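Figure 3 (text version): structure tokens given as input.
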């Protein structure tokens, strides 16, 4: 049976892999595929420049004829050399076939930059007997001497060659198209806990491990913008400045006032004049509604390399922002998520019912995003301006669904494969005003957003 006939025999399986890569990869990117076969995966990703390499001369010839707009080279990944740098490096089932995985990963390290995402697909070792049986029944192309690697094996190999794992997911319980059964197994059951462990296809997203020397240089040279949405927080405005640490080479502070009924706007104007010599302060009155809109307006005004959100109620201490800045500037993470549940929290600051709800949504979001998050509702977050612009450019996938602003960033960061980490903060009761949050109403909104995220991220 020819290569194309084998693909048609298992087209349902290959189309699912293509769909997964399409979810993760931004179109018009520089993409290298190692083990590109006949080029079907590479072409469906709409690359700005696409290079596929493979040791199978027949596959390379077919790919060149089918997709002349892409480059395909007959080359062994163990000896691959290139002066190009790519935004994505793909190994779709390739680690199962190569003889020296470490050498391949070492070569690929040289064509990656800090923002490059390496995406690997491989088979769950628990399926070895089933797949061998499928080969005997001529439902799968015969392949000899496969590497049956588990996640821990590949994670270790990546670590040895200077990479770190960002996320690990599994999908597909039933790799053949069969009416209703395929849909039930793969769309409904496969994403669920327990069932997910039984899935055939495993995916890893990885990146280059940050360099300590570059990290320290970035911390010293990068600039920062702190966006402070403020509604009915007149008594806290000056404290935002008096408690603010210097962040990086230059710190810009942006107040966005959101239709207050007290004198918050007047207070913002007053402190801008008072602290003009000490701080670079920008101010604006919100044109839309909601915290999410205020955050986006502030980000649009920002000029800093690192963008940080600080709630103006001062329940998170501004001095803790230094840890957010350092984490993102050093590339220890690419999205810093505030976590209030490391240090002790008084019941006044976070009542027990709020804490239970927080832990529930943290578990739910961790499951949906395939990233461990301990605190889902902390408003303090940080991201590089470059990555925020990528999220904003990719916002059409989710749409304008988030009135809070936090989850638009979280979901967008997860879709781009950014490294998300919790940053501990000290959470204290507010000393002025009352919360603008209506817990029951906004809890329902949050639950609806989680259902929306499940549809757009997990059950795709």
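Below: residues designed for each position.
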């Amino acid at each position: 049976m020819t290569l194309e006939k084998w693909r048609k025999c298992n087209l349902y399986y290959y189309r699912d892999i293509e769909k997964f890569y399409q979810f993760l990869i931004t179109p018009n990117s520089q993409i290298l595929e190692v083990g590109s076969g006949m080029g079907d995966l590479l072409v469906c990703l709409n690359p700005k420049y696409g290079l596929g390499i493979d040791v199978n001369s027949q596959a390379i010839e077919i790919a060149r004829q089918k997709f002349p707009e892409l480059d395909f080279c007959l080359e062994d990944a163990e000896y691959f050399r290139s002066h190009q740098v790519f935004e994505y490096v793909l190994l779709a089932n390739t680690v199962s076939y190569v003889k020296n995985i470490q050498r391949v990963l070492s070569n690929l390290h040289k064509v990656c930059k800090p923002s490059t995402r390496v995406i690997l697909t491989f088979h769950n070792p628990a399926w070895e007997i089933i797949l061998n049986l499928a080969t005997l029944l001529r439902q799968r192309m015969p392949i000899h001497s496969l590497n049956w690697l588990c996640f821990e094996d590949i994670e270790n190999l990546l670590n040895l060659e200077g990479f770190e794992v960002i996320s690990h997911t599994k999908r597909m319980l039933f790799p053949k198209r069969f009416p209703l059964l395929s849909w039930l197994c793969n769309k409904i059951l496969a994403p669920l806990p327990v069932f997910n462990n039984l899935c055939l296809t495993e995916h890893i997203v990885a990146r280059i491990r940050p360099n300590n020397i570059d990290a320290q240089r970035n911390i010293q040279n990068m600039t920062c913008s702190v966006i402070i949405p403020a509604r009915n927080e007149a008594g806290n405005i000056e404290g935002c400045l008096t408690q603010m640490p210097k962040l990086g080479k230059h710190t810009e502070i942006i107040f966005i006032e959101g239709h207050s009924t007290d004198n918050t706007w007047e207070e913002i104007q007053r402190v801008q004049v008072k602290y003009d010599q000490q701080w670079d302060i920008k101010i604006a009155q919100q044109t839309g509604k909601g915290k999410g809109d205020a955050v986006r307006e502030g980000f649009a005004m920002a000029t800093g390399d690192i963008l940080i959100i600080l709630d103006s109620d001062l329940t998170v201490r501004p001095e803790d922002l230094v840890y957010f800045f350092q984490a993102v500037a050093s590339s220890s993470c690419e999205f810093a998520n505030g976590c209030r549940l490391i240090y002790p929290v008084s019941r006044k600051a976070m009542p027990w019912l709020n804490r239970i709800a927080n832990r529930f949504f943290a578990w739910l979001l961790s499951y949906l995003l395939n990233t461990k998050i301990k605190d889902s509702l902390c408003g303090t977050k940080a991201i590089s301006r470059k990555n925020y612009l990528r999220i904003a450019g990719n916002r059409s996938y989710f749409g304008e669904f988030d009135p809070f602003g936090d989850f638009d960033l979280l979901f967008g960061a997860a879709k781009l494969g950014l490294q998300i980490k919790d940053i501990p903060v000290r959470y204290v009761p507010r000393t002025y005003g009352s919360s603008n949050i209506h817990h029951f109403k906004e809890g329902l909104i949050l639950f609806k957003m989680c259902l929306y995220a499940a549809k757009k991220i997990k059950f795709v």
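The chain has two domains: 3-209, 213-458.
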